[in-house]
């Protein structure tokens, strides 16, 4: 997933959407993974209010950058596959949605076939067909509907230059629909993780006769349990009501307990948390899908037993790290990079990120979740507080007996990730090893432009990455596959690594349709790359989010790390 700061989007959603946005087993409340958020069973009825900072803009399945179908989008848009709506590790699995299974590959995973379930209908009662899914994908290629994940253009055979159905009436030959319930995808290379991709909202069906182009987002035709009845100010205020033609018999994942979903955005994060804390009136049946508790707020909540019982805890596949550009001296010397890895004090970094309740120290680039292939390792073991003596030893071997002076680039955004607090913690730790660090703080847009350009990328900077889906593939490939180095655009391979053995292993793993076997290979590759000291993993974030006192049935999976609104019930 691309960096969640770019979408919190590749999560997002992502979303991302990320975008939205935005580990170990996740649950809520923290001490009971099976808790329903109250002492009574969930029931149907009522209104669920969603209080968010960011508007649910571009509410068109072609334009959304989501994983698993998204959170709010997944209430309206069903896809071929989706995420398993379970707590923790089980929630990182991909499961069928509109399709009868997660897909049937040919021998080399270059052709994937899906069959739609029987009885699928849109909100107006008309049947959902395979041609609608093909059309929904094709319109996502239209330049005026850009914004979704880029994988389809890369993966589908002959799709690189396709401009969408408004300009090219012939459509994509890589997608075949031999009958109303069958759809076949032809890929230009093996992709064992295609079932994960089929969770993106671009796979939502769109009836061609109802397509209104860029205006479709105001009233997209629902295939999910809710339909859009109001969309004000480009997603700032969304109201969803029940889709009478949705059938739970065809949908094992969404519970659809509330009658109405009222999404209100553009709110200050502190206001959101204050309203959820007070839980007065409609706010008692409210949640947030994008606002965490900050360190100060968490300290206040932790001191109130009743409030603490209304905090959902989750983990999303996401890593904050120090990045090196080995083309810039002295970072061309592996010993200098290794010295910095030894000098980092992760305990101080975790404290700067809000403390152990909001951040977990990281020594692996892959998040510490099974689905990613997490394999515990630490190529430069320095303990929780760093090893400045070992760092000095390596610096001496590199010719810097008297230390050296470096510049660390970071964002000025107060995000507790790439912000001044984290940069200062790194600065203080490196000083103990004889390394003087000058901090270069940039406004967020300038920071992104600088670190994502091969021409301007600094030698040392703070970065982060989030998953498009819970697997090592979209985590390691964009950052370490040499063929993904972009010289004249947004580049994420920060270490500019182009190692044939790494590239070949990525291709070999991509052929695997056994996702458990693939995960083990991703973990081994992470370890191999980690030994090159191109990044220094710092921490994985922990999400802590309040929900209202009348909210029931809390489910937080390791896919999204946040409360799943498709499972929630209210009094």
Structural account:
The protein is of the alpha+beta class. Helix content is 22%, strand content 18%. It has 15 helices and 21 strands. The strands form 7 sheets. A 5-stranded mixed β-sheet has the order 8-9-10-1-11, with no helix packed on it. The chain has a 4-stranded antiparallel β-sheet with strand order 4-5-7-6, with helices on one face. It has a 4-stranded antiparallel β-sheet with strand order 14-18-13-17. Strand 8 (226-232) and strand 9 (237-242) form a beta hairpin. Helix 14 runs antiparallel to helix 15 (515-530). It is globular and about 75 Å long. The two termini are 36 Å apart. The model is unreliable at 1-39 (pLDDT under 50). Keywords: Signal. Residues 28-48, 205-228 are annotated as: Disordered. Residues 1-26 form the signal peptide. This is ABC transporter substrate-binding protein. Residues 93-483 form the Solute-binding protein family domain.
């Amino acid at each position: 997933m691309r960096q969640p700061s770019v979408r919190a989007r590749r999560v997002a959603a992502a979303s991302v959407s990320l975008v939205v946005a935005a580990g170990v087993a996740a649950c809520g409340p923290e001490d009971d993974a099976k808790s329903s958020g109250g002492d009574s069973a969930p029931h149907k009825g009522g209104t669920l209010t969603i209080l968010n900072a960011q508007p649910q803009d571009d509410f068109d399945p072609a334009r959304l950058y989501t994983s698993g179908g998204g959170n709010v989008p997944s209430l309206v848009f069903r896809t071929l596959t989706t995420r398993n709506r379970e707590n923790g590790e089980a929630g990182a699995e991909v499961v069928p949605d509109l399709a009868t299974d997660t897909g049937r590959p040919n021998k080399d995973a270059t052709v994937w076939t899906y069959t739609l379930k029987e009885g699928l209908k849109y909100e107006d009662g008309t049947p959902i067909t395979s041609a609608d899914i093909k059309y929904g994908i094709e319109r996502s290629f239209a330049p005026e509907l850009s914004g979704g994940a880029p994988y389809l253009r890369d993966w589908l055979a002959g799709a690189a230059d396709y401009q969408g159905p408004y300009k090219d009436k012939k459509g994509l030959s890589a997608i075949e629909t031999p009958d109303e319930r069958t759809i076949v995808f032809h890929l230009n290379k093996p992709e064992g993780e295609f079932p994960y991709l089929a969770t993106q909202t671009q796979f939502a069906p769109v009836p061609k006769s109802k397509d209104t182009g860029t205006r479709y987002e105001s009233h997209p035709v629902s295939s999910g349990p809710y339909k859009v009845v109001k969309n004000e100010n480009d997603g700032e205020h969304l109201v969803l009501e029940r889709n009478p033609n949705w059938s739970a018999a065809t949908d094992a994942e969404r519970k659809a307990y509330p009658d109405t979903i009222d999404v209100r955005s553009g709110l200050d994060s502190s206001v959101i948390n204050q309203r959820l804390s007070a839980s007065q009136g409609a706010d008692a049946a409210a949640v947030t899908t994008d606002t965490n508790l900050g360190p100060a707020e968490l300290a206040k909540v932790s001191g109130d037993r009743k409030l603490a019982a209304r905090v959902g805890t989750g983990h999303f596949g996401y890593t904050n790290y120090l990045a090196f550009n080995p083309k810039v001296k002295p970072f061309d010397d592996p010993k200098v990079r290794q010295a910095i890895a030894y000098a980092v004090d992760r305990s101080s970094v975790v404290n700067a990120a809000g403390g152990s309740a909001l951040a977990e120290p990281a020594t692996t680039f892959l998040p510490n979740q099974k689905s990613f292939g997490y394999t515990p390792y630490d190529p430069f073991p320095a303990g929780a507080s760093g090893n400045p003596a070992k760092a000095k030893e390596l610096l001496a071997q590199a010719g810097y007996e008297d230390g050296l002076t470096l510049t660390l680039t970071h964002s000025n955004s107060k995000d507790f990730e790439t912000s001044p607090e984290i940069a200062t913690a790194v600065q203080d730790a490196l000083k103990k090893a004889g390394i003087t660090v000058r901090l270069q703080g940039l406004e967020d847009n300038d920071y992104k432009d600088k670190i994502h350009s091969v021409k301007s990328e600094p030698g040392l900077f703070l970065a982060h990455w989030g998953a498009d889906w819970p697997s090592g593939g979209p985590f390691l490939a964009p950052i370490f596959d040499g063929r993904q180095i972009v010289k004249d655009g947004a580049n994420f391979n920060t270490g500019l690594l182009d190692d044939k053995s790494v590239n070949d292993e990525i291709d070999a793993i991509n052929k695997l349709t056994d996702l458990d076997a693939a995960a083990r290979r991703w973990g081994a590759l992470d370890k191999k790359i980690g030994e090159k000291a191109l990044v220094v993993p710092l921490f994985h974030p922990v999400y802590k989010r309040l929900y209202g006192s009348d909210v029931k049935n809390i489910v937080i999976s390791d896919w999204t790390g946040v409360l799943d609104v498709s499972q929630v019930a209210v009094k």
